[in-house]
Amino acid sequence: MNFLSHFYFDRDTTNCYHVLGTVLPDLLKNADKNIILHPEKLHHTDNEINSIIEGWKKHLDVDRYFHSSDFFTTRSHELKKLLLPALQGSPVKPFFLGHIALELIIDNLLLTTGKISVAGFYDHLSGCRDEKIEAFLKFAGLEDTAVFFKFYEGFKKSQYLHTYAETHQIAYALKRICMRIWKNPFTPEQEVLMDEILSNYREEMLNDFMLIFNEIGVKLTSV
Questions:
Q1: For a FRET experiment, which of 55, 82, 170, 222 has its CA 20 to 30 Å from that of 143?
Q2: CA–CA separation, 208 vs 17, rounded Å?
Q3: Among 17-26, 149-158, 180-189, where is mean pLDDT lowest?
Q4: Digit-coded pLDDT (tens) for 77-94
Q5: Among 154, 119, 150, residue whose Cα is nearest residue 134
Q6: Least confident residue range of 61-70, 102-111, 129-138, 169-178
Q7: What angle do CA 190, 194, 195 make, to 5 degrees?
Q8: Per-position DSSP letters for 18-34, written without gaps between them
Q9: What separation in angstroms does the CA of 110 have from each of 18, 162, 184, 220?
């Protein structure tokens, strides 16, 4: 799941460090794909650092439940097939595109149906002190934190997740993600076709997308 989908499960918490922990694995991956940390089995004497660890563990649980669900298998496969005409001559792998497109559509639906607030998400991040984050990262084994903080400050400043509320930005966001792996993933014509496909599929998902959140929510409470 993407940033905002992870936030959904803790949208009512007052603990900013826990919220940060729920998205930190993806923030680190975006900052540098070579950063690999496994703090989920660690325990710290500082409560705020432990809150980050607990959030991190919840991130892993949510992703595991999501990726093993029938919802993910069915929906990502449908999107993959629908997007194939837009991938003729593109280096992008169809499964990758279907997977990421589904997560972006879900984030868009959470925003456009008023299930979460992007401003609330960024408020939580702003409430976390950098020295606590750095202490967590070093405790988890990352000695050089400069690359992460450079990305993280830009992420907070740009607040680009607000654009996820615009349905026609889904295809653009998908392109930007693909550009991290492939230099020129799509032609302008392919982008137009993707936008049409994704907008139509979003409408088809509108009435039942919350089923996956309900399903995961039940599993989280039974752990």
A1: 55
A2: 31
A3: 180-189
A4: 999 999 999 999 999 999
A5: 150
A6: 169-178
A7: 120
A8: HHHHHHHHHHHHHH-TT
A9: 20, 12, 30, 19
Amino acid type, 189: E
Residue pair 20/137 in contact (Cβ under 8 Å)? The answer is no
Helix axis angle for 130-139 and 47-67, nearest 10°, is 70
- HSE-up (13 A, CA, CB side) for residue 116: 30
* pLDDT score of 167: 86
At residue 223, the pLDDT reads 65
**Side chain identity, residue 69:** S
Q: Which tokens go with 74?
A: 């069915």
Dist. CA 24–CA 17, nearest whole Å: 10
- Mean pLDDT, residues 2-19 taken together: 97
- Name the DSSP letter for residue 163: G
